[in-house]
Amino acid sequence: MADQEKGAMERREETRPAERTRIEREYSPDVDIYETEKELVLVADMPGVERQSVDVDLSGGVLTVTGRVKARRLDDGFGCIDCEFRPGDFSRSFALSEEIDSSKIEASMSRGVLRVRLPKATPESRKIAIKEG
Amino acid sequence: MAMNIVPRRKREEGGELSHPIDLFRRQMDRLFEDFWGETGLMSRFAAGEAAFLPRVDIAESDKEVVVTAELPGLSEKDVEVSLSQGQLVLSGKKKSEREEKDKSFHLVERSYGSFKRVVDLPVALQEDKAQASFKNGVLTVKVPKSAEAKSRKIQIQGD
């Protein structure tokens, strides 16, 4: 059972087309995404990440969330007895299908959980005024 | 404890040294308890809760043992830590945020529910000197090793 248990908890490593220049691992955080009438909300578990080390970026319709983790223990002289995870950064990208008002994106970080609110563009702001001609 | 897998033998009077089979029985009981017990995976599955089990690292240096657990979204108030006889028990509950009805979920990967993890620490420790801290969703418990457990370098004498 121990093996199964570990399997269920295993972190997914994020794979990218380009190699990283840092030696630390990069993990894909567990994410919930839900939609309300007005906004899209993304919630990501990033344990060990401080508020200052989070980066949220939207470009070309792709939202990327990144969290850097300081190597938090395992200083010199420490050895693993039983390690189910190793410190590593978190990163994940999503293609957004809804029209998002990128000027109003808000992100907050609390207790290792990142929450990004992506307000939908209002119909008014999308509408193009037609002039009389 | 909910059940014992290996039948309990009547203990003879006068207190004996623990028999290896007693040790084996304890380990088996714990294994089954983790799965079938009150807060085990099975009961949480039956209660419709997604199984949240924090990941745990155990590391050691010459002087101490450090246990780190990933508990994103939890605070020190949501977690109980106890340590006795070489067993560290982490328990608590990660609350679900999914009650609101006007939400439609596109992706659900984060898990919720009660959890309990029992971690066996393999060396003799000064359990009364354990320290726990919580930061950014990571719980760290540090326990200094007892004097006997600290590693010593042994000089090898030549001829």
Describe this structure in words.
The complex is a heterodimer of chains A (133) and B (159). Chain A starts with a helix and ends in a 7-residue tail after the last helix. Chain A is 9% helix and 47% strand. Chain A has a single domain, classed as Immunoglobulin-like (Sandwich), CATH 2.60.40.790. Chain A has helices spanning 2-9, 123-126, and strands at residues 12-13, 25-28, 31-35, 39-45, 49-59, 62-69, 79-83, 88-95, 106-110, 113-119. In chain A, strand 5 and strand 6 (62-69) form a beta hairpin. Chain A is mainly beta. Chain B has a domain at 52-97 and 111-144: Immunoglobulin-like (Sandwich), CATH 2.60.40. Chain B is 14% helix and 32% strand. Chain B is built from two helices and eight strands, in the order H-H-E-E-E-E-E-E-E-E. The relative contact order of chain B is 0.18. Residues 11-16 of chain B have low confidence and may be disordered. Chain A binds chain B through residues 1, 5, 8-9, 11, 30-37, 41, 43, 45-50, 72-74, 77-86, 110-113, and chain B through 31, 34-35, 41, 51, 53, 55-62, 65-66, 68, 70-75, 97, 102-111, 122, 136-138, 140.
